[in-house]
């Protein structure tokens, strides 16, 4: 019986020692002021950025977005300048001031501005108009612009198309027009060509 008591005492002592070891392994909670000290330490080491008042402003370049006019928009505005833009749109050429300028000047040489939409064929184009010499007509100005673009893309008029594609000067493109077979007179090599401003004239809705 005494031997059993000794064993129980030994086991109890071992259990007590194990409990003390577990308790010792658990870290005690931080003192109440420790967290405050930690926050103060982090605040003291916080990074900041200051900019001198002498630093000048920097200009920022932002992308620009442009919209090309469509057939419907140009048809509503319906001027000779809009028809020139329609040719450029159909031909996939840049719609620039120079390109528009040379086309409206060209239109003036073929049909005067007051009735530039004459026979719905402002440039007296013979391709697809039923008049080989440019005396034919088209059902609409929209079709007329498309056929001008088709004609100018032919090898026969390649120098004109190249000038429009490169947004060359109106004078350079005009010279290509004079040299081409578009007009049998070649506009007297420029003598019958005016560089005066072309008035803006709107065509009747029925022409479009």
Q: Concise description?
A:
With 208 residues, the protein is an all-alpha fold. The protein has helices spanning 2-25, 34-44, 71-77, 80-91, 97-110, 141-152, 158-165, 170-179.
Structure overview:
This protein has helices at residues 2-25, 34-44, 71-77, 80-91, 97-110, 141-152, 158-165, 170-179. It is elongated, with a radius of gyration of 43 Å. It is built from eight helices and no strands. Helix 3 packs antiparallel against helix 4 (80-91) and helix 5 packs parallel to helix 8 (170-179). It has 208 residues and is an all-alpha fold. It has a domain at 71-207.
How many individual helices? 8
- Look at the helices and sheets and give the structural class: mainly alpha
Determine the mean pLDDT. 82
| CA-based shape | elongated
End-to-end distance, in Å?
123 Å
Which spans of ≥5 residues are poorly predicted at pLDDT below 50?
1-25
Tell me what portion of residues adopts beta-strand conformation: under 5%
The count of strands amounts to: 0
Major sheet attributes: none
Fraction of helical residues: 40-55%
One letter per element, helices H and strands E, the order comes to HHHHHHHH
- Radius of gyration, CA atoms, in whole angstroms: 43 Å
């Amino acid at each position: 019986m005494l031997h059993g008591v000794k064993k129980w005492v030994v086991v109890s002592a071992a259990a007590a020692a194990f409990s003390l070891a577990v308790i010792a392994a658990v870290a005690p909670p931080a003192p109440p002021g420790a967290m405050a000290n930690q926050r103060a330490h982090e605040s003291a080491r916080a990074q900041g950025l200051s900019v001198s008042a002498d630093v000048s402003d920097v200009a920022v370049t932002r992308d620009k977005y442009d919209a090309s006019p469509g057939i419907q928009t140009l048809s509503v505005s319906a001027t000779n300048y809009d028809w020139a833009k329609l040719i450029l749109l159909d031909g996939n050429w840049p719609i620039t001031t120079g390109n528009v300028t040379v086309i409206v000047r060209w239109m003036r040489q073929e049909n005067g501005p007051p009735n530039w939409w004459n026979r719905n064929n402002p440039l007296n184009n013979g391709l697809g108009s039923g008049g080989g010499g440019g005396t034919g007509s088209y059902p609409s100005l929209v079709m007329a612009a498309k056929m001008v673009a088709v004609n100018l893309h032919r090898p026969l008029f390649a120098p004109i198309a190249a000038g429009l594609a490169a947004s060359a000067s109106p004078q350079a493109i005009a010279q290509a027009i004079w040299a081409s077979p578009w007009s049998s007179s070649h506009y007297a090599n420029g003598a019958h060509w005016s560089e005066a401003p072309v008035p803006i004239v709107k065509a009747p809705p029925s022409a479009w």
